[in-house]
Amino acid sequence: MKLAVVSVAVLLVILIACPVSTRAEGYGDDGDDDDTKSWFPLDNLLSLRYYDKICPSFEKIVATKVSEWTKTDPSLGPALLRLVFHDCGVTGCDASVLLDHEGSERKSPASKTLRGFELIDAIKSEMEKSCPGKVSCADILVAASRDATYRLGGPYWPNAYGRRDSKTSYARDVEKVPSGRRDVTGLLETFQSYGLNVLDLVVLSGAHTIGKAYCETIQSRLYNFNGSNGTDPSIEPKYADYLRRKCRWASETVELDNKTPTVFDNQYYINLRKGEGVLSTDQELVKDPRTAPLVAAFALQGSLMFKQQFAVSMAKLVNVGVITGEDRDGEIRKVCSKSNSGIY
Fold first, then answer.
1. Whole-prediction pTM value?
2. Tens-digit pLDDT profile for residues 214-226
3. Rounded Cα–Cα distance for residues 92 and 59 (Å)
4. Is 101 a catalytic residue?
5. Is 265 annotated as a binding residue?
6. CA distance 149 to 147
7. Annotated binding residue 327
8. What is annotated as the active site (predicted)?
9. What is the CA radius of gyration of the chain?
């Protein structure tokens, strides 16, 4: 408990220094956002006002399309958030995950359950009508995932723009994305390679407060944990019984948050402390002394703290490995699934 209290104090200091909004203040308008300049890096030619003159309708087009599509299919919200994680976590936030050709990230077995590509294509098509050749697919993906998170009740945060799109994409690079079976040390090493820290790891894992997992990813925990032909003992027994009944078939899905699966809240952390984490990487956060106090802090302090810190950590994540106008290996694709050269 003392560790949890210390963690809460640390988090409060961070949040006071890094103000964000849990509602869309200025959503879609031209309000002053100078107060946001101190809470994420702008040293790579990205700008908060990048599209103000060259494509002033950028944010409105993205917000409108995301709203339309997620009303029809609410599951696209979690899908977009997962899609941007997979993009930024491979070679950086460069839309490489959107390229669709033999041997691309999108063709990797690890990417087979990714969704949301059609929505990004629809936004890009509309953008090309209003601002031809001005808006990158990487910026669209970052903006769409933020708007989808907000539509689910998550926080709103201002994005800096000016990313270019990668011209290449390789399936072998997808191995960099943390899998559902890595331990905390492996996860931390991956996050640190992105310039993120242990707090970012815990809070971004909280994205699992929404969405589903395919049973294929957890069957080893349920039926043959560590070769024992049994179930992972860290899973709460009644919940383990439910998962075994639910996941007889690998193609079935299970909610990542079994209590409030469609609400962006802190229930994920409460579940972890009860042994109700679906993925082993989630449940490991409770066991490791580096992450357990943070899990406790988010579980005990309600949803507001989680939402605020999620916005801060996401603003950091979407700046990982970006390509900018001065980089020779980037472009603004005409179609998100193809490079402009036509090679891929």
1. 0.86
2. 999 999 999 999 8
3. 22
4. no
5. yes
6. 5
7. no
8. 86 (proton acceptor)
9. 20
* Predicted pLDDT of residue 245: 96
Nearest-angstrom CA–CA distance, 260 and 269: 12
Nearest to 11 by CA among 299, 332, 318: 299
What tokens appear for 96 in the block? Answer: 């490489």
Give the domains, in start order, of the chain with CATH numbers: 22-34+45-178+317-331 (1.10.520.10), 184-312 (1.10.420.10)
90 is in an annotated binding site: yes
Question: What's the pLDDT score for residue 165?
Answer: 97
- The residue from 82, 86, 124, 221 that is catalytic is 86
List, for residues 245-276, the tens digit of each pLDDT value: 999 999 999 999 999 998 999 999 999 999 99
Q: Whole-angstrom Cα distance, residue 93 to residue 96? A: 8
Output the CA torsion sign for 57, 58, 60, 62.
Answer: positive
87 annotated as belonging to a binding site for a ligand = yes
Q: Residue type at 83? A: L
Instruction: Please tell me whether 96 is known to bind a ligand.
Output: yes
Distances (CA, A) of 53 to 43, 48, 58, 76, 131: 21, 12, 10, 30, 10
Phi-psi region of 195 (alpha: psi -120 to 50; beta: other; left: phi over 0): left
- Measured in whole angstroms, how far is the alpha carbon of residue 223 from the centre of its chain? 29
